UniProtKB/TrEMBL annotation:
SUPFAM superfamilies: Ribbon-helix-helix, S-adenosyl-L-methionine-dependent methyltransferases
Pfam family, one: Methyltransf_25
Keyword Methyltransferase: yes
Protein's recorded name: Methyltransferase domain-containing protein
InterPro entries noted in UniProt: Arc_rbn_hlx_hlx, Methyltransf_25, Ribbon_hlx_hlx, SAM-dependent_MTases_sf
GO biological process entries: methylation
Keyword terms of this UniProt record: Methyltransferase, Transferase
Amino acid sequence: MTEDKTKRLSVYLPDKVKSDLEHMAAETGLSMTQVIVMATHSLLANYKSQGSAIFSSLLDTKQKESTLLSERIQTINQDNSKLQTYYGLRAAEYERIYHRDEPDYQNELLLIGKAMKDALVDRTVLEIACGTGYWTQIVAVAVKHITGTDIRPEVLQIAEAKQIPQNKASFLIGNAYELDSIPGVFNGALANFWFSHIPKNKLDDFLTGLHKRLGPGANVFMADNVYVSGRGGELVYKEDCEDTFKLRELVDGSRHEIVKNYYSKEELYDIFKPMAKQLKVFAGNSFWYVSYTI
């Protein structure tokens, strides 16, 4: 028996390519193997006559895609850095936003507080972007324990100075996109006034990471701002960008542009419904909140 020494090539073909080749074979009456062999001969003949120029448009496209991706990643990193710097500088004056002298505004804050406690009662809670601990202090009376995390040490210093019993709350530096690094076992999560600062192309990454960290059956509560014209700084739109931004001025006169996305009640349903049970969505005149079970 003569040994077959023909060199065989194993080539992966994407499903779309295989489908197109099958369609071509069906139309010409040739077998798939014949179609592939003829296509390869044609490619080699073109390459022999024109060289690598036959790939120029394809390579240019790939190069452009790679450059655009690199630029987008750089932009995201710059936006994250700006946001961190802003909240570091804003730490001492952050809670002033909750003292607006408007009855409807204050009533909605009370509504958020009650709904948050109901959603997280007796739970061991992971809080993302806890800031100065404003919401940590409010919910601590209802939960079993809460671990507040934030990327900025300045705000955590303020949170730690609050009169929250140590057996009820602790605070750690933590990245909202790297929740696996935070120790503990949690069956609840809190993320108030963080969701609007997530670039829209990172929403899935954040929610997937959060849900993976908690597991099925955990309760989640989030609240954030409804857009009100003229409140909280100038709203900035950018060409070819799905995110919106706010131009904020601090007491020291410094101005900062931060990601700030606003969502309607319908948009919140669309985002959370595929991954949530017992979903509740509230949208008022100043704030919205969502609560659900993973």
